[in-house]
Write a structure and sequence with these properties.
The structure holds 2 protein chains of 2 kinds. Chain A contains 8 helices and 6 strands. By secondary structure, chain A is an alpha/beta fold. In chain A, strand 5, helix 7 and strand 6 form a beta-alpha-beta unit. The longest helix of chain A has 18 residues. Chain B is an alpha/beta fold. Chain B has one domain: Thiamin diphosphate (ThDP)-binding fold, Pyr/PP domains (Rossmann fold). Chain B is globular, with a radius of gyration of 16 Å. Classes of the chains: A alpha/beta, B alpha/beta. At the A-B interface, strand 2, helix 3 and helix 5 of A face helix 3, helix 5 and helix 8 of B. Chain B: This is Aldehyde dehydrogenase. Chain B: GO terms for molecular function: carboxy-lyase activity; thiamine pyrophosphate binding. Chain B: Pfam families: TPP_enzyme_C. Chain B: Keywords: Decarboxylase, Lyase.
Amino acid sequence: MTMATADWREQIFETLQGHDIRQVYYVPDAGHSKLIEACQNSNSMRAIVLTTEEEAMAGTLGAWLGGEKSVTLMQSSGVGNCINMLGLSKTLRYPMLMLITMRGDFGEMNPWQNAMGQATPKVLEATGCIVFAVDRPEDVQPTVNAAANMAFEGNQAVAVLLRQKLIGAKSFGKN
Amino acid sequence: MTATLHRRDVVKALMQDPTDDLLVIAGLGQCTWDITAAGDRPQNLPLWGGMGGTVMIGLGLALAQPRKRVLVITGDGDMLMGLGSLATVAAQRSANLAIVVLDNEKFGETGNQATHTAPVAAGPSDRGAGTDLTAVARGCGIADCATVTAEAEVAQLVRDARAKAGPIFRTVKVMVETLPAAMPPKDGAHLKDRFRQAVLGAA
């Protein structure tokens, strides 16, 4: 892993702290693992591990009803588990910030990931989410910051797709 | 065993003399009508959708408002769709969260088809799996779980749901009844805004 990739992961954590995110919903994910660890070790954040990603949309609503901001960290395959719940944000108009590590996207070596990976931005847009995609390390922090502003200032669902050009495709022992 | 408890009576007891610190999330369908029949108030979130998510809304709220009591009232159909959330609740150990499932063993909104909580031997068109939600919740790691079947147990149920250190989980076996719908406001943004204003003040 290069220094540049370590940097953008730290920048996401700092950006979430800067927005006073208190609840971090996640299903364990290799692409988000360093960020999840940072959130687990944070004094101001509670890291909430889920059994399935759709729990996050409901948890996010509860957090917002109680005055706390949250974020959801998941893989693109998890977006497929969320479709009905994604619509809650449009119905109740509450902020939903999602940081999604892509699979089935660029150089994926597990074909079982491709169908949902390719459907991910379409599904998010179809349920009313604003979607940003990031390919370059230098774009991560400004995009996450912009997404958080739009979510929390606009009572809006916003997803940031961290693409495989950025995070790399899982190699399964091949290069 | 045939259920004898009336759901509306149980919910009325659960929500009797509510203080502003009692925050109630109700699962879609009959539970939404039940809490509204007990008295619509801004600290209620009656759901019209989002099936399977009721417990998680309660958890996110309980974590955000640890000094207030969060009471989730939902049905067996909604609970069965979100069983995993019971493990998620167990992992967080929220002391201010109570989950009450009104279990009539039916999908009430779609024509009273049997859910998995119905008995196995209920007949070919009405057969369930005998799923015991209290056992599921306990198996997920929620230590304080019980099933309520009798009128004499309701007063204790109410004390536990309103005040006992949680998370607590109660299955309440209730009758299958056709009841008039008591409809709360339907606009989700309005329900959310009035709730936040009541809990957080004008913002």
